[in-house]
């Protein structure tokens, strides 16, 4: 389940040329219990002509929606969640281990299937339409997503596979993978991160069999939508599904973070669940949001072929859990190949306690950039994405310092502060100056801004 409730401005993204030299590996599959169809590895990303991108063995023609960059494409196929002893792999394995042992079928086999090798290239229909997300919903905007073209994109959430997996006949599964979003730049945001999706569907018998006098209870009715239920669900069914969902997630978080964990639930809005909730945990005296969840929209369940069932879904970020559990301060570290980082997570078993020991804290270098905006179609995410493309992981944070409107011309100026800091070494003024100058030049050329530098 994705964080689609964050509404942002519309973007008009200037195309960034793709180099034919970029190489991207494929997507291997590493599921223990049940797995998706594997995606062949060792395919290259290349551009036989300027209007086509080849990714994972398929060619995608570019159009006015194409906005994926070299920097982002270079991350496709890294599959950090499947690299043994990586902190994201540890979190994934902990969740899998908990679900395998806690929830079993009649024959003692795991109830939940796990899919961690699904291709990150999906159709717009899979990412949005199958989840009933309206055509005019803010989450579809180019500002927030990486589109290969109008029909294909890098998935913005693992929910993109929900419909297909339910349609295949599954009623209990976890889907894990890398997801891609255009976003701000700071220590908790990165254009690529990793999600785990959980879905469980119940038949009438499964939901009510352990309830006293449950024989007469039903899943569905012809009613009205309220803040507490959908129009087609009975209140009894919704309450039981909601109770089961919160119980499952409370057990999971307690298993990961330890006994005595305080949990609270906050009502919220997700496009494809109702009612919906955010789960917060009290960790070291601070309330932290860890996941979103809710009762699945019945229209979605019905369209996937499970008309006689009701269910829940949740989505959590692996980086979010790992940063809390291991006290990792910067999301860029997950992409580090520094042995001082990686060796800290080589442990004999997945449940061993780990306290991340920070690498040497290198000093930041700070530079500002100011420019006049080209038009109303400009968005901050355009600049953030450009800065990431040019500066890569040398950029720790970008902050909009000032916004000024000229009293006569009504032109708008933005001033951004860019904080450069390498997580593994000290940067020099000369190399930062070259990068900063390249960002200035690229902003003028790609975004059409008028420099004030």
UniProtKB/TrEMBL annotation:
Residues 360-452 form the FDX-ACB domain. It holds the Pfam family FDX-ACB. One of its GO terms (biological process) is phenylalanyl-tRNA aminoacylation. The gene is FARS2. Its main location: mitochondrion. Belongs to the class-II aminoacyl-tRNA synthetase family. One of its GO terms (molecular function) is tRNA binding. This is Phenylalanine--tRNA ligase, mitochondrial. Residues 177-348 form the Aminoacyl-transfer RNA synthetases class-II family profile domain. It is found in: Mitochondrion matrix. It comes from the Eukaryota. GO terms for cellular component: mitochondrial matrix. It comes from Columba livia. Its EC number is 6.1.1.20. Is responsible for the charging of tRNA(Phe) with phenylalanine in mitochondrial translation. To a lesser extent, also catalyzes direct attachment of m-Tyr (an oxidized version of Phe) to tRNA(Phe), thereby opening the way for delivery of the misacylated tRNA to the ribosome and incorporation of ROS-damaged amino acid into proteins. Keywords: Acetylation, Aminoacyl-tRNA synthetase, ATP-binding, Ligase, Mitochondrion, Nucleotide-binding, Protein biosynthesis, Transit peptide. Monomer. The keyword Lyase does not apply. CDD domains: PheRS_alpha_core. It catalyses: tRNA(Phe) + L-phenylalanine + ATP = L-phenylalanyl-tRNA(Phe) + AMP + diphosphate + H(+). InterPro entries: aa-tRNA-synth_II, aa-tRNA-synth_II/BPL/LPL, Fdx_antiC-bd, Fdx_antiC-bd_sf, Phe-tRNA-synth_IIc_mito, Phenylalanyl-tRNA_Synthase.
């Amino acid at each position: 389940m994705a964080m689609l409730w964050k509404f942002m401005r519309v973007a008009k993204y200037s195309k960034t040329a793709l180099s034919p030299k970029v190489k991207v590996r494929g997507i291997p599959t590493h599921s223990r219990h049940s797995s998706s169809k594997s995606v062949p590895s060792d395919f290259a990303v290349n551009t036989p002509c300027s209007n086509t991108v080849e990714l994972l063995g398929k060619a995608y023609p570019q159009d006015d929606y194409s906005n994926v960059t070299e920097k982002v494409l270079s991350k496709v196929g890294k599959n950090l969640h499947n690299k043994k002893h990586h902190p994201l792999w540890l979190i994934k394995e902990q969740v899998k281990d908990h679900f395998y042992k806690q929830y079993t079928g009649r024959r003692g086999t795991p109830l939940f299937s796990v899919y961690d090798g699904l291709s990150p290239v999906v159709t717009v229909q899979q990412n949005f339409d199958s989840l009933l997300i309206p055509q005019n919903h803010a989450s579809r905007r180019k500002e927030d997503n990486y589109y290969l073209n109008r029909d294909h994109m890098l998935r913005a959430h693992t929910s993109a596979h929900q419909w297909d997996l339910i349609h295949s006949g599954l009623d209990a599964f976890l889907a894990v993978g890398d997801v891609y979003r255009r976003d701000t730049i700071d220590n908790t945001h990165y254009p690529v991160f990793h999600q785990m999706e959980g879905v469980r569907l119940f038949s009438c018998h499964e939901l009510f069999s352990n309830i006293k006098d449950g024989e007469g209870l039903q899943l569905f009715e012809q009613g009205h939508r309220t803040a507490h239920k959908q129009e087609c669900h009975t209140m009894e069914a919704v309450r039981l599904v909601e109770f089961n969902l919160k119980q499952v997630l409370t057990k999971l978080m307690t298993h990961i973070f330890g006994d005595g964990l305080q949990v609270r639930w906050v009502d919220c809005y997700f496009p494809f669940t109702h009612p919906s909730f955010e789960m917060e945990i009290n960790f070291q005296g601070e309330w932290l949001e860890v996941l979103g969840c809710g009762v699945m929209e019945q229209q979605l369940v019905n369209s996937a072929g499970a008309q006689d069932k009701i269910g829940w879904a949740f989505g959590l970020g692996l980086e979010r859990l790992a940063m809390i559990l291991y006290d990792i301060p910067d999301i860029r570290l997950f992409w580090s190949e520094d042995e001082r980082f990686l060796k800290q997570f080589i442990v004999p078993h997945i449940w061993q306690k780990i306290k991340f020991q920070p690498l040497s804290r290198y000093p930041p270098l700070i530079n500002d950039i100011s420019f006049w905006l080209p038009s109303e179609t400009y968005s901050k995410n355009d600049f953030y994405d450009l800065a990431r493309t040019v500066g890569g992981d040398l950029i720790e944070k970008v902050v909009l310092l000032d916004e000024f409107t000229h009293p006569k011309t009504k032109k708008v100026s933005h001033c951004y502060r860019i904080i450069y800091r390498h997580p593994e070494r000290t940067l020099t003024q000369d190399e930062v100056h070259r990068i900063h100058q390249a960002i200035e030049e690229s902003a003028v050329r790609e975004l059409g801004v008028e420099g004030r530098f």
